[in-house]
Amino acid sequence: MNLSQYTKEFSYNLRLAFPVILGMLGHTLIGIVDNFMVGNLGSTELAAVSLGNSFIFIGMSLGIGFSTAITPLIAEADAEKDDKKVRTTFHHGLLLCTILGIGIFILIVLAKPIMNLMNQPKAVVDLAAPYIDWVAFSLIPVIIFQGYKQFADGLSQTKYSMYAIYLANVVHIFFNYVLIYGVWGFPKLGIVGAALGTVISRIMMVVFMHYILKHNIAFKRFFKNFTFKEIKKSILKKIINLGLPSAMQMLFEVALFTAAIWLSGSLGKNSQAANQIALTLASSTFMVAIGFSVAAMIRVSNAKGMKDYKQLITVARSIFLFTIMVETFFGLVFVISHQFLPHLFLNMSDVSQQLDNTEIIFIASKLLLVAAVFQISDGIQVVVLGALRGLQDVKIPMYITFVAYWIVGFPISYYLGKHTNLGATGIWIGLLSGLTSAALFLYIRFARLTKRLANQNQ
Fold first, then answer.
1. Residue 120 scores a pLDDT above 70
2. Taking the CA atoms of the chain, what radius of gyration do you get in angstroms?
3. Secondary structure letter of residue 23 according to DSSP
4. What is the distance between the alpha carbons of residues 360 and 270, in angstroms, rounded to a whole number?
5. Which residues, including other chains, have CB under 8 Å from residue 224's CB and lie 6 or more apart?
6. Please, are residues 146 and 63 in contact by the beta-carbon 8 Å criterion?
7. Closest Cα to residue 289, out of 374, 404, 369?
8. Is there a contact between 77 and 215 (Cβ–Cβ < 8 Å)?
9. Of 166, 108, 113, which is closest to residue 140 (Cα–Cα)?
10. How far is the C-alpha of 10 from the C-alpha of 210, rounded, in Å?
11. How far is CA 341 from CA 30, 135, 280, 361, in A?
């Protein structure tokens, strides 16, 4: 098969992925705005937000992971031109996302006492508690929003969620500003103001998404006559069977990176700062791979619905190839700029910080060299996962990701980070090992499944 069969798919893949990439960066922007505005209040407040968000991030990963089950089911039904199946999947998915959002909110609030066991300063814990309550509540609208987003994604309409996220960012910046600092007659609420800004913006995001889809000519037929009488246990079970392993896959990866943050923190504040710089840069480029993962999930589901397995393999490989090219480019940028990029995150004019800054730059620049390689592994594993979700194959990939991240990756991170002179670089070598193992075995899984499907079709 010649290369042009793959490259001719690039432009459509990019059209599907691009709004998702911008939307994911929009989600990231909400956290950046919180850190920037709260950072002006002081280091204790910033530490409280960071601690609070480590809880929220785990809850959010479960919600987002679960909701991805909706997209392949919708995309398959869309390819089959089965409107009834699209509508039923959407309504059942939205109901499950609502229940899950409420459940995760309650769980996070109940889990708050764990903060007291994490050897955090009392002042940080006291500030983090009310912040967690409000931001955990904001997960209810976030996960409901995911229900709408995955439905629209399944119909290959990826741009509407991007519009909603950027509207949420505008609302978020406004309410953060007035509620954190108490301007224009609003009360000065500090970090609770940041949490309330997040809640308001996320509720607006759902309201906007509901309105824009319900009044869109292509979607409005799917919004009619929602009743609980139509809810069927068999359809709920089908979505849960796809959603639960997907949620666990995302949780295993998020938990590994959270463990890397805590491991780096145990090596000292400069290692933690360097880890945060490298992680922020690597996360930004990872958003591109997530966009391609969604494109893979949609297009593989469509081809599966049409039972066109030859096209399915071509489409998937074209996305894998494009991802490798893009992530290799980012890797080269990291290699070329590894000494320069850390400077962007530090106040180089502060003489009192000069010694710390020198050490942070030294560590972060080495981490970026490791990140340059793991860009490619991370990109491959997430797009292959997207393609496997498109095939509705989630159980075996769940076991693969657990073994790759926690049996291979974490022990290497722990050993090299804590018991050798490599320090933070050793932790990242462990991350690279886990991601590379996941990429390799997920690809083998995908190749075997698609070969079997193609042979059945002959």
1. no
2. 22
3. H
4. 5
5. 87
6. yes
7. 374
8. no
9. 108
10. 31
11. 22, 31, 11, 9
Amino acid present at 83: D
Residue 203: which H helix or E strand, with range? Answer: helix 191-214
pLDDT band at 351 (very low <50, low <70, confident <90, very high): low
All residues at 6 or more sequence positions from 326 whose CB lies less than 8 Å from its CB, including other chains: 288, 289, 292, 379
Ramachandran area for residue 225 (φ above 0: left; ψ -120 to 50: alpha; else beta): left
Are the beta carbons of 397 and 444 closer than 8 angstroms?
Answer: no
Q: State mean pLDDT over 124-143.
A: 84
CA distance readout (Å), 410 to 36, 226, 278, 328: 31, 45, 18, 24
Query: Between vectors from CA 407 to CA 406 and to CA 413, what angle results, nearest 5°?
Result: 65
**Is 353 or 176 the better-scoring residue by pLDDT?**
176
Mean pLDDT of the chain: 83
Query: Which element (helix H / strand E) includes 32?
Result: helix 10-39
Contact 61, 250 (CB under 8 A): yes
Q: Is the pLDDT of residue 348 over 70?
A: no
The DSSP secondary structure of 359-370, one letter per residue, reads HHHHHHHHHHHH
Does the pLDDT of residue 308 top 90, yes or no?
no
Q: Is pLDDT at 436 greater than 90 in this prediction? A: yes
Distance CA 87, CA 213 (A): 13
pLDDT digits (tens, 9 = 90+) for 80-97: 888 888 888 888 888 899
38-47, 259-268, 308-317: which has the minimum mean pLDDT?
A: 38-47
Residue 369 has pLDDT above 70, yes or no: yes
b/e for 43-75, b at 16 or more Cβ within 10 A? eebbbbbbbbbbbbebbbbbbbbbbbbbbbbbb
Query: What average pLDDT does the segment 110-135 reach?
Result: 75
* Dihedral-angle region of residue 182 (phi above 0 means left; psi in -120 to 50 means alpha; beta otherwise): left
Is residue 448 predicted with pLDDT exceeding 80? yes
Look at residue 215 and give its three-state secondary structure.
coil
Cβ atoms of 68 and 246 closer than 8 Å = yes
pTM above 0.85, yes or no: no
Q: Give yes or no for a contact between 149 and 161, defined as CB atoms under 8 angstroms apart.
A: yes
Kindly write down the DSSP assignment for every residue of 240-308, as one continuous string: HHHHHHHHHHHHHHHHHHHHHHHHHHHT-HHHHHHHHHHHHHHHHHHHHHHHHHHHHHHHHHHHHHTT-
CA dihedral 191, 196, 202, 206 (to 10 degrees): 170
Least confident stretch, 9-18, 308-317, 377-386:
9-18
Give yes or no for a contact between 245 and 102, defined as CB atoms under 8 angstroms apart: no
pLDDT of 457 over the 70 cut = no
Report whether 431 contacts 374 (CB < 8 A).
yes
